[in-house]
Structure prediction request, 223 residues.
Amino acid sequence: MEEKDLKPNTGIVTSRKCPHCGHNEIGYRTPDGEFHALKPGSLVQVLMVEEPQGPALETMTGLGGILPEGEDQETYRPWVPDPLTGSKKLRLKYGVMVKEGVFDGPMAGDIYRSAYIKKLEGLIEKETRTPLPVILDRFFSSAHLASGNPRQIAQAMYRELDEIQNPARLMTEWLERQDDESLAKVMALPVTEPSTEGPVSEEALAKELEDLSLEGFLVLLED
Prediction:
């Protein structure tokens, strides 16, 4: 580890919505407003001090607020087309988190693809139980793709693995054509899948996507 990596840093433990996929992450924020995510394997040094008062507290929390203004104030909403809301498998397979204000009208193919890759990136980032090369080798015999940061890995998986790209390709095709044939390809499920479970609320869908694991998502792609 380089010497600069051991430089002491001070901040307040906080949480935020990931600007890429919208899931919650824990970290600490420095007085200059920079957020540092805490992940398995992070080297930390804990210094317990009395809670800062007055100007010190105002500086640490950003002009007297809980969080400074910026990307952490952005909100994300889950999106999945109405025909898919009655199936949990389809909601988890195709559902994405989209930043509010990105689009006002119907969902567009390029926006969906971007949100889909960010979804994959978020699943990679929060995977802690099993080493990523092991997961990729188990599902795709592609352990070599587990190189780089979560965004680079997600992009490489999307670019090189048809199984990963297919959901976004099918959804984009339906968004562009809006025909029954394209929708049928999107909704193709094993015969064991119930025809309907009833739609869920936006909050429930967001919770389902938040609880989804990378391995759970990859299992869905095998259907």
Observations:
- DSSP finds nine helices and five strands in the chain.
- Confidence is low (pLDDT under 50) at residues 49-72, 190-196.
- The beta strands are 12-17, 24-29, 35-37, 76-79, 96-99.
